[in-house]
């Protein structure tokens, strides 16, 4: 087989065989196929697309390129959850202990922050002494013992995706639906879960700015999962403003703990109940959505979910005292209020700008492997639809930096104020499963 022919075939819009896709992924992972040929092929895919069969084959070739985790010795249906990346998205911190408290084992590999979007591993790393790099045996043992473990995805998980993603990043080929779908799903399949709930974000702060594109991506990922025996459902959710009030690391852990106490922001709590219900249904722990919500509400009300969070922190070596006293989490030396330039209604909070401002304060990385400041971040005081008066505080910057005028300016730019409140949009747009696409508001119990 010759890479030149594989590129030419795709450039002409023809369908590649399973063997050709396997040859391409294995050859590139081993280093036999050079970057320039892979880059040419990626650009051909960007313009010509891939059929569902090709996308499934590409996904499986990438999933097989490294270790596939075997979780069969953990009893029960293992349900994973994945978000395509958002700003202020701390749902995993709430859902993992909540589901474990409902008896569903959670074995999750998570990522670090990417661009303006945060990552679960960076948030967990803000808990003093919390270990985010469990070896596979410890990871499996912990899931068996306490029902949950979350670790960073090591280099052995889908190495083909890591190499291809790095090349896509510098060749303007990231935002292709079959390439994103195969990248995400290869890692989820290699992660060894039995079922998966995808939270596909749409809006200003998401990869997919338009709802239709998010639905199209969700459909491809749901189809891939269900074709290869990973029961998958997706919800398409709003990222036109940050989720909750906090963006950063320790500030987000604090908000997750409040949510586990039943005291969290409405949008975060609602999304956790919606995602958690789908996870309980896939795990066959609930008869229907009403039953699922009742189980989740009970685990929150009895404190079982918060206790599970404490057990999780302890099991991963972290200081569990933070669960009962969140003031023990890292706190920045400066807390700088950003005030409204005029009175009006908050019409929009550009999530991407808020995410970028948080990175400038130290909460994320501007260059690969830059250290992250666990205390840095942003706490919003106003959300979309609220009224503010001139000079009222819109948000507070948390930083250890001496110079933060750029972050301040970006945050102010993120807020659009207007004379009337904006129309309220849905938090959850659609549910997508093997049977089709359903407006979430019409999905019954
Ligand atoms: N996240 C991934 O893991 N892969 C992509 O291609 C895009 C976002």
Helix content: 40-55%
> What overall geometry do the principal axes of the alpha carbons give?
globular
CA-CA gap between termini: 52 Å
Bound small-molecule species: uracil
- Biggest β-sheet, characterized? 5 strands, mixed
- Major sheet: arrangement of strands: 1-4-5-13-14
Search tags:
4-stranded antiparallel sheet; binds uracil; 5-stranded mixed sheet; 445 residues; single chain; alpha+beta
Helix-strand blueprint:
Blueprint: H1 3-11, H2 18-30, H3 35-48, H4 52-63, E1 79-83, H5 91-101, E2 106-110, H6 120-124, H7 136-146, E3 148-152, H8 159-169, H9 177-190, E4 195-202, H10 211-227, E5 231-238, E6 246-248, H11 250-260, H12 266-282, H13 289-301, H14 304-315, H15 321-324, E7 334-339, E8 344-349, H16 351-361, E9 377-380, E10 387-388, E11 393-399, H17 405-414, E12 415-418, E13 428-433, E14 436-439
Parallel strand pairs: 1-4, 2-3, 4-5
Antiparallel strand pairs: 5-13, 6-9, 7-11, 8-10, 8-12, 9-11, 13-14
Helix pairs in contact: 1-3, 2-4, 2-8, 4-9, 4-10, 5-11, 5-12, 5-14, 9-10, 12-13, 16-17
Structure, described:
Helices cover 44% and strands 16% of the residues. Helix 16 (351-361) runs antiparallel to helix 17. With 445 residues, the protein is an alpha+beta fold. A hairpin with a 2-residue loop joins strand 13 (428-433) and strand 14. It is built from 17 helices and 14 strands. The strands form 4 sheets. The chain has a 5-stranded mixed beta sheet, with helices on both faces. It has helices spanning 3-11, 18-30, 35-48, 52-63, 91-101, 120-124, 136-146, 159-169, 177-190, 211-227, 250-260, 266-282, 289-301, 304-315, 321-324, 351-361, 405-414; strands at 79-83, 106-110, 148-152, 195-202, 231-238, 246-248, 334-339, 344-349, 377-380, 387-388, 393-399, 415-418, 428-433, 436-439.
């Amino acid at each position: 087989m010759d890479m030149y022919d594989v590129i030419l075939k795709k450039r002409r819009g023809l369908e590649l065989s399973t063997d050709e896709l396997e040859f391409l992924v294995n050859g590139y992972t081993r280093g036999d196929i050079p970057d320039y040929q892979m880059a040419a092929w990626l650009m051909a895919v960007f313009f010509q697309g891939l059929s569902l069969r090709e996308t499934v084959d590409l996904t499986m070739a990438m999933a097989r390129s490294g270790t596939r985790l075997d979780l069969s010795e953990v009893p029960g249906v293992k349900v994973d959850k994945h978000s395509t990346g958002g700003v202020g998205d701390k749902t995993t911190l709430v859902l993992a202990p909540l589901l474990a408290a409902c008896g569903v084992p959670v074995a999750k590999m998570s990522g670090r922050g990417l661009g303006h979007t945060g990552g679960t591993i960076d948030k967990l790393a803000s808990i003093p002494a919390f270990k985010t790099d469990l070896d596979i045996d410890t990871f499996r043992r912990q899931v068996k013992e306490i029902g949950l473990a979350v670790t960073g995805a090591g280099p052995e998980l889908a190495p083909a995706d890591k190499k291809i993603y790095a090349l896509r990043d510098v060749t303007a080929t990231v935002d292709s639906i079959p390439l994103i779908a195969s990248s995400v799903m290869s890692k989820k399949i290699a992660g060894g879960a039995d079922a998966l709930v995808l939270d596909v974000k749409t809006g200003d702060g998401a990869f997919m700015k338009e709802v239709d594109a998010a639905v199209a991506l969700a459909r491809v990922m749901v189809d891939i999962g269900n074709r290869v025996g990973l029961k998958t459902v997706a919800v398409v959710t709003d990222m036109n403003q940050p989720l909750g009030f906090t963006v950063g690391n320790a500030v987000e852990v604090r908000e997750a703990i409040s949510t586990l106490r039943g005291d969290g922001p409405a949008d975060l709590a609602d999304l956790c109940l919606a995602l958690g219900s789908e996870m309980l249904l896939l795990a066959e722990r609930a008869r229907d959505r009403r039953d699922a919500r009742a189980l989740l509400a009970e685990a929150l009300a009895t404190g079982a979910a918060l206790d599970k969070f404490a057990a999780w922190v302890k099991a991963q070596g972290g200081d569990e005292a933070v669960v009962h006293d969140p003031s023990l989490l890292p706190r920045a030396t400066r807390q700088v209020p950003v005030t409204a330039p005029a009175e009006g209604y908050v019409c929009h909070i550009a999530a991407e700008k808020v995410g970028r401002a948080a990175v400038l304060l130290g909460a994320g990385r501007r260059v690969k492997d830059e250290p992250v400041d666990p205390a840095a971040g942003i706490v919003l005081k106003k959300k979309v639809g609220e009224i503010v008066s001139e000079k009222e505080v819109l948000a507070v910057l948390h930083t250890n930096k001496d110079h933060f005028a750029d972050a301040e300016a970006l945050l102010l730019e993120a807020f659009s104020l207007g004379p009337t409140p904006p129309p309220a949009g849905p938090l959850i747009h659609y549910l997508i499963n093997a049977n089709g696409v359903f407006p979430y508001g019409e999905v019954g119990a």
